[in-house]
Amino acid sequence: MKALKKLRRMKMLSQGGRCFYCGLPMWDEALYPCLPLSCRSGELPKTLRCTAEHLHPRSEGGANTADNIVAACLFCNNSRHRRKRPLSPEAHRAHVQQRMAAGQWLAAQVAAWVQRV
């Protein structure tokens, strides 16, 4: 499991701290320990927690390798795999980008959260 954490952090850093799908900034407690405690427990920051996304799912034989892992926020990672037939990574990324442009993905949640803070 430590290898997967290392890959996730390596990918997060190489992606500039942004989600592979939506492009929003993510957080990882080990990399950003100074994140305020109030933010860690809030709904939105949890949603933007960095996860290791397997481009080829483990359930279909995907491995924990650098070429199969990207860093994705929890929201995007979960939304891809909630479908009966998950979209390919490329198709999911295009779907998310289209929704973001229309303010219908996390963009609306981020705007609401920023106004509350």
List keywords for this structure.
2 strands, 117 residues, mainly alpha, 48% helix, two-stranded antiparallel ribbon, globular
Characterization of this structure:
The chain is mainly alpha-helical and 117 residues long. It has one domain. It is built from 6 helices and 2 strands. The protein has helices at 2-14, 37-41, 43-47, 74-82, 89-101, 106-116; strands at residues 50-54, 69-73. Strands 1-2 form a two-stranded antiparallel ribbon. The longest helix is centred in the N-terminal third of the chain and has 13 residues, at 2-14. The chain is globular. 24% of the residues are buried. The model has no long low-confidence stretch (mean pLDDT 83).
Total number of helices: 6
Point out poorly predicted stretches: none
Order of helices and strands: HHHEEHHH
- Quaternary status of these chains? single chain
Could you tell me the strand content as a percent range? Answer: 5-15%
Backbone CA Rg: 14 Å
| Average pLDDT score | 83
Termini separation comes to 35 Å
Instruction: Please summarize the sheet with the most strands.
Output: 2 strands, antiparallel
DSSP strand tally: 2
Strand order of the largest sheet: 1-2
Helix content: 40-55%
| Morphology call | globular
Global structural class: mainly alpha
Tally of individual domains = 1
Summarize the SSE layout with pairings.
Blueprint: H1 2-14, H2 37-41, H3 43-47, E1 50-54, E2 69-73, H4 74-82, H5 89-101, H6 106-116
Antiparallel strand pairs: 1-2
